[in-house]
Amino acid sequence: MSLWTSLEPASATVDPGGSTTVRLRLRNTGDVVDEYRFEAVGPLAPWARVEPQVLRLYPGTTGSVEVSFAPPRTPDATAGPNPYAVRITPTEHPDATTVPEGNLTITPFTEVRAELVPPTVKGRFRGRPKLAVDNLGNTKLTASVSGSDNGDQLSYDIHPANVQIEPGRAAFVKTTLKPRQIIWFGSKESRPYTLALQRSGVDPMDVEGTYVQRSFLPRWLATFLGIFMALALTFVMLWIAYKPSVRSSATEKIQEAGISTLAPSLSPTPEAPKAPSSVPTPPPAATETQKPGGTAAGAGGGGSEDKETKAPERTAATAVQKLAAQDPTGRHICYRAYVSGKGWTDAVCDGETAGTVGEETPVKAVNIAVSGTKGTSSAAFVHNPGSTNGEGHFPDPWSGAADGIDNYVGSTKKDAPNMLGLTINVGGGSSVCQTAHVHNDAWLGLECDDPGSGFDFTYAGTHNNGLWLEAIKLTV
């Protein structure tokens, strides 16, 4: 094959969310008419478009095509130089393919999202909120975290105080709030506070929360103690004032035998009436067949037991409890997906597929339960119709559940938005791994969290409003 090519320019620059065009010139240096097909290859291929895709050249003639690049404003558009290539396949000589290469520099941008999980915490001596920091830019985020409040009423223990987050990843900053003064009696008090995320060269990002401080002894307990002391004092006073009569049983026995210990008198005196007993008679004890509520075990005919009962729904907790009974020392995770138009799928466990693949049916909600990991927590990232950057959002805070308990994220309502992905973590120093299948794409790569490095959660899915979640696999 005889073909000459040239990229003009060989290196270009583009802003995420913008576009740029590179011209590819080529000349047919052979002696036959040939038709050339063009295809962008490499990491930038999803964001590249070649027009026209087919070019026909006579011998000795020159033509050109335009290669347009439009990287999105997402963490996937990695800042810095990115190589790309265009594959040129001649129709007459398909085995004589040429691949000219160029370089596209994507400019950096920064976008940070931070929220408190939960925004309001309650306690008597401390509160433990978490600050979730998402790096939505395409460069590494380095920041420090500090806390403050009006009146210096709280102290802050923040770990880690400095974070470094890769593009498209997130981190949790654990915070312990401690009131400087204890409320012994009275009603609870709300103490607003602020956690500031400080990056070099920019104003700090403030995230506001509320710590509700409860009193050490609630008001109802003080009232109860006062009433109890009054009743106790009344009882003591009545006990002292009441003097029951006491009669010897020996005297009664002698009188029954007709023997008198006194000298005979001229007129007999009638026997004095017996004083009432000062000890009340206890009620009869319940028999073994009596049940709480005052009904006997054999009474009633058992009408409710004769009716046919509906089998309980098999949730993720039902499945994981069965695994935990078979393997008490192991770690397991079970889950199921609420699929649009189909409802809940069967609960699966430990790396099996929940949802559908390639059926254009989005996931609306996910039900998760774990065993052996000291609980789990999750949050759903869903479609945002009001988005200005083509991305979804987190409409609800994180929700969590202990071992063997169902945790739900997303919504099963009729008009619920499609889930684009979900964040998940587990406790007890355990690690959770995930892979997701999204609309118009294959299975994404397997990713796990790293609790020891501060990245104690992982994200399954995408941020794109048009790429909803179809299926997931989870392991612990």
From TrEMBL:
InterPro entries named in the record: ChW (IPR006637)
Protein origin, superkingdom: Bacteria
Renumbered residue ranges of the record's region Disordered: 262-316
Signal peptide: none
Entry GO MF terms: hydrolase activity
Basic and acidic residues bias spans: 304-313
Protein name: Hydrolase
Species this chain originates from: Streptomyces dioscori
Taxonomic lineage of the native organism: Bacteria, Bacillati, Actinomycetota, Actinomycetes, Kitasatosporales
